[in-house]
Design a protein that fits this description.
21 helices; globular; 3% strand
Length: 503
């Protein structure tokens, strides 16, 4: 049994959610409690397999572990290859933790028009797509899992979203599909020149590709992954998607889905085409810092709480991309940490926003206020999450931003040092703006006295037990990684060294 688990644990942890979704399809629609039990049970069982993998993982080894390499699509020489290393481990852990916590929150928070069977089944399918994307080591396999994510999120926004859900879901679908088209064209171009879809082999084979062709291939992946991040100017789908998505969709989108783009940059684009990456790095850095400033200014202009948090994601992912653009181990390490930190912090912010909307039936900032009076625990949790988001030392957000800014001081050899130091200054300015919009949000929603509209509303209650259960792991992880960043840095550092990724 132990040998079988060693050999097939990654396939098990990937496809267990899909099995759970299939079981739910066989259960009558009216058995809502049973659907919730099956969904949560499946997510917890998947987490248990993940914990076993984490225990068995050799943290002193930087290469791939638990590797599955089986024949798949022979006609195009595509294989079913899955592997786990220090780069994918933190993102796997984040995914495995977030999904059951979202299910716990969903127990009493199924959005309109209801139908837990469909809603929870889609989230399980989504989990399979996310896990598979982080574990795939074949480009076609990666693309399949990457696309599996698209449809569940489309339906979650389009069916269970807000008043403008149709527009937001179609916009999300078209943007992502366009990016996917460019991405698959880039993968096919790599195959034409390298004769393989195996990510482990393609880096060595890429040296045979003419530099001009490498630049074009990287450009296709740049746009494809850039839309998913999303980077400026490909970001416009994100505020609409977040604003209209149900709380659960916003949490998963912020916590995990956005990381598919940044992970794709590190695992595929930069790893396979390092020379082309050097040519594109200044442009990545430029768009990253524009995104930081644009996202911050966008936040200052918002009147809706969820939309403000969405624009903050554009800014925060800018720091991740800035770290990646330096092409150094320090920068990429900071980017990997920033992905997880952003997932925890912004996921927490969207949880609170969802609960605020449930109680006040609005997220219009000017109508809110006095949260610390009516729901003091929720108010302080919001304050904690905003402090973490602005990068307060001692919390996880600090280690995602400060090292990325610092890495810009000395980028990889061959990159323009003066240019990247300019990026560093601009990014540092972005942290000041972040403090401005986050503190403004906290002050407007938490302080003061409740408006007459909500002053005597009996539905405005403080944090409920299931909310505590869903939120506490987020809050604990933000503090733990804030005080002990080495827990993640040490793991990713070994993987980068093994891959020879980063200067």
């Amino acid at each position: 049994m132990n040998t079988w688990l060693n050999n097939w644990s990654l396939a098990l942890v990937t496809f267990l959610p899909l099995v759970g979704a299939a079981v739910m399809l066989a259960i009558p629609k009216g058995e809502e409690q049973l659907h919730k039990i099956v969904a949560l049970g499946t997510a917890l069982l998947t987490l248990a397999v993940g914990i076993w993998i984490f225990v068995k993982f050799d943290y002193n080894h930087g290469g791939f572990q638990f590797v599955i390499d089986e024949s798949w699509i022979k006609v195009i020489n595509s294989r079913f290859i899955m592997g786990l290393d220090g780069l994918s481990l933190p993102l796997l852990g984040l995914t495995l933790a977030v999904v059951p916590l979202v299910f716990i929150y969903s127990w009493n928070h199924i959005p309109e028009p209801g139908n837990p069977k469909a809603f929870l089944s889609l989230m399980l399918i989504l989990e399979t797509g996310m896990i598979g994307s982080f574990l795939a080591e074949d480009l076609i396999l990666f693309f399949v899992f990457f696309e599996v994510v698209l449809l569940p999120m489309y339906f979650m926004i389009g069916v269970w979203g807000g008043p403008e859900r149709k527009y937001a879901s179609i916009k999300f679908f078209i943007y992502t599909l366009f990016g996917s088209a460019l991405m698959i064209l880039s993968f096919l171009a790599l195959y034409q020149h390298g004769g393989s879809f195996d990510m482990r082999q393609l880096r060595d084979l890429s040296a045979t590709i003419p530099h001009a062709t490498q630049l074009l291939i990287f450009g296709g992946m740049f746009v494809g992954f850039g839309i998913k991040v999303p980077m400026f100017p490909f970001h416009t789908w994100l505020p609409d998607a977040h604003t209209q998505a149900p709380t659960q969709g916003s949490v998963i989108l912020a916590a995990v889905l956005l990381k598919l783009g940044t992970y794709g940059f590190v695992r595929i684009a930069i790893n396979i085409l390092p020379e082309a990456a050097k040519s594109w790095a200044p442009w990545i850095g430029l768009l990253a810092v524009i995104g930081i400033i644009y996202g911050a200014l966008g936040c200052l202009a918002q009147t809706d709480m969820k939309r403000l948090i969405a624009f903050s994601s554009v800014a925060h992912m800018g720091y991740v991309m800035l770290g990646i653009s330096t092409l150094t181990k320090h920068g990429i390490n900071a980017a990997m940490f920033g992905m997880v930190a952003h997932g925890l912090i912004t996921g927490m912010l969207f949880f609170v926003a969802g609960s605020v909307k449930e109680r006040y039936h609005t997220l219009e900032i000017k109508r809110l206020g006095g949260l610390l009076v009516q729901a003091p625990k929720m108010g302080w949790i919001l304050g904690f999450a905003t402090m973490a988001s602005l990068g307060l030392p001692g919390l996880a957000g600090f280690w995602g931003e400060f090292p990325a800014i610092l890495a810009s001081y000395q980028p990889a050899e061959g990159l323009n040092v003066a240019l990247f130091r300019t990026f560093m200054v601009v990014a540092a300015l972005g942290t000041v703006l972040a403090a401005g919009y986050l503190l403004w949000l906290f002050q407007r929603t938490a302080f003061g006295t409740p408006s007459e509209e909500f002053a005597d509303d009996p539905h405005i209650t403080d944090v409920q037990p299931l909310e505590w259960l869903a939120w506490s792991p987020f809050l604990i992880a933000i503090v733990v990684f804030g005080f002990f960043p080495g827990l993640m840095f040490d793991v990713t550092e070994k993987a980068l060294h093994f891959m020879q990724l980063g200067a």
